[in-house]
Amino acid sequence: MSLGLTLARRGLRVAVVGRADRPHAASAAAGAMNGCFGEVTPHLLRSEHGRLKLAMDFRATALWDGWEEGLLQESDEVALRTAKGTVVILNTVGVPEIDTEGFKAIRTALDEYKEPYEDIDPADVPWIHPAPTHRPLQAMFIPGEHAVDAPALLRALSAALVRNGGTIVDDLVAEVLLDGDRATGVRLTSGEVLSAGHVVLATGAATTKLLGCLPEELRNKIPAVVAGRGVALMVRTAAGTMPPSVIRTPNRAFACGLHVVPRQDGVIYLGATNEVESQVGTTAAIGELNLLLSGASQMHDDLVNGWVERILVGNRPVPLDGFPLLGRAGVDGLWLMTGTYRDGLHQSPLLAAEMAARILGEQADAELDVFTPVRPPIEAMTRDECLEMAVRHTLGSGYEHEWRLPDDWPPMIEKHFRSAFGRSLEQVDPEFVPPPEMFIFADDYIHAALRTYYEAHRGASGR
User: Fold this and answer.
1) d(Cα 324, Cα 357) in Å, to the nearest integer?
2) Is 308 helix (H, G, I), strand (E, B) or coil?
């Protein structure tokens, strides 16, 4: 929608295809934090590609005021932002290797970018009132990181696109059409054909099946996109109160940490889980709901008296190597703009401008060329780091679930995880290093997709 609007504003003829109800989309279920520094982790800062992703988030943050202003002028929405700033808390639920180090990494990145923030007394954080066993140890306030009302944003984008001459087609693409080495349009599930000089797949977790139009040798060199299924809750608080800001923990257990985002009229967004799966999902597992409901006491012990108004399920687009797919998809006229995992909504103004420049043959940021879809696997950590991260985050999820074990059990469990995950890593590939989520959560389909992708690049990479 953002790219379509950007191109329509430039006077191009644009059609955006997709079902209006967005059954599998991540954005429709997103807490929509304008998260830049709040998403920082130690591993992100140690990786060249991770630091580039942070730089993209930082650039996107600077665009949001103008982006919001334009959308409000071109739609019937009166506001898109729902939170003023972000409070990051470090509480007693997590583990030092994840939560404490994550909290330090956020501060390190803020200092490096000279971004304003303030250390605050956790007792002074508005609204927060956790259970006594979950009280925060530290807290910081980041005034420049807000949140967006995702449904309002999607309505504004739709209205602005139409008012700028764009067309919205309430259907799904069944097939991308090629004529030789050039994309010529798409065939819809209704059978209708739309012809176009450029086709952009911004299709999230559904992307890979639409790449069947490409020759197999080329298709195998593009990392497949799988689903990071996430579950969140819309909760009406008992007293009708909301925090003025986002309140969140550092990232945990391969997810974006526990967070509360104010929406409106005493309703808060409580999120979110993350399970990497080969197929998109539309339902929530009981264990995921239990995790969110038990986690609520980390934020406010009175949430148990609130009401769950809606269960949200979305599917984040996760490429096999964990990094975005931005640019030409190996044939003329076919582009990918997806694979952004948890950053797509926040980065949308930036990515729309960058992709529009590429499509129109204008100057674009060459640094982002590393995310071209046809590429060797991006490896953001060593095998030892990958294994250690898999073990630590899996153990950390146990503490987040408030497990109660004999004191001598966690070391035995850690030894078992290290052995089992090590074998799984070797079975996936003895040389390439996937993101930890891809071999500890993943099913046989994802493991097979990884092997296919690695084999397509083994000779070219010198391995």
Assistant:
1) 17
2) strand
